[in-house]
Amino acid sequence: MATSAGGNREWWYNGSIHVLFRHSVTPSALSRSRVYYGWWVAVAISFVSFSQVAFFNPVLGVFIAPLEAEFGWSRGVIAGALSLGTLAGALISPVIGPMLDRWGGRWFATGAMLALGACLLLLAGVNSIWQYYLLYGIGRAIVTSVVNLTLSVTISNWFIRSRGRANAVMLTGTRGGMALMPLIVLLFVAIADFRLAFAGLGVLVLIFGVAPAYLYVRRRPEDMGLLPDGDVAPPPSDEPLVIASDERWSVSEAVRTPAFWFLLAGTSQLMFVGGATNLSMAPHIEDNGLGRNTAVTMVTAWALFGIVGGFIGGELRQRVSVRWALPGTLVFTALGMVWLVLVSEVWMAFVFAAWHGTAFGAQLPLNQTAFPDYFGRWTVGAIRGITAPVQFGLNALGPLVASIAFDRTGSYDKAFLVFAVMLLVGAGLIALASPPRRKVAYS
Questions:
Q1: Which residues pair with 39 in a beta bridge?
Q2: Which of 71, 113, 117, 176 is the most buried (most CB within 10 A)?
Q3: What's the predicted TM-score (pTM) here?
Q4: Could you give the angle at which helices 380-409 and 75-103 cross, rounded to 10 degrees?
Q5: CATH code of the domain made up of 37-221+236-431
């Protein structure tokens, strides 16, 4: 329930059917609202987030063995499509970001889900390397440039104080997808082959991704006569926001601050390591003699612990500055990487799933909130757009580096130890990002 900007109308949302009613309202009536529309946006975004996982590294990791067996491609070749698509998406992101600031993510998310579903259905018929690279590369580029930015920008616009919790809600979709989709792939491969698995994922994306994006995603609360977090009125000017900024930082202003560059350098480390680890951990477990079923089940447990970690990270952000909360999660993630090298028995694999899954899940909402917390929500698309070529360029490089390291040495162990060191370096860089301070103002 919310007043319009003029204060003489109310938009009331019926959660069971998508209907808006208009009638007279006062600010006091607004305060009795049951559910802030932004939470419906967050739930819809979580379905979009779930659907995009079809092009995530852990899912491709389950396809590696069937593709090796079918075509004889090396792991570096298979990972190359993911890396190429990620890099292409990173180069497109600076164009997409400002468009999201201007028009919002509804049509971008809807179109992206339709395109991802089509790519997956077509991948079911792939017979050559160029077809695989084209279709998987397009899908991965869409996830990197359109979907990733849409999720971040939309949540950042609808929430300020509750941004950590809202990102945790959104990331339940991501982690849920990581838990379920590898199992779905494994099931379809067992029933038939990788072709049925790609087709099944395509149908899943079309069912769960398209309708929520079209029906519920909107640009920002002001477009519906609302305020961020469901507030009835802007906070008094003498009560500055402790957690986050809602200032109108321009891109040129942001890039002139040391904080921007420390944040970019630090978060880029975790993007590189995350991309490499998420693709490699299931094959690593399988290579260590624990079997494909154990590897896939471990990834499922890892993703489920990531849901718990996501809510831990969201709550941390409500209580501790991202400057300190995010480095803390990176330290625990780095220690989990060291443990992964030591895994040789089934119980050790599931200790890794709990440890690393929780830590990695906790860092995700903190990473999503870092730039909008520092530089506000009004140009977050443009700011995230210019960071994407660096972050996702390194995210694209990570799986390729890990795969090449395996192809040359027959093991991921040394690469995982290097990744642990990189996470510690990233933690230190983020801790150096002292937030630039300006007077908070609402428009």
A1: none
A2: 113
A3: 0.80
A4: 180
A5: 1.20.1250.20
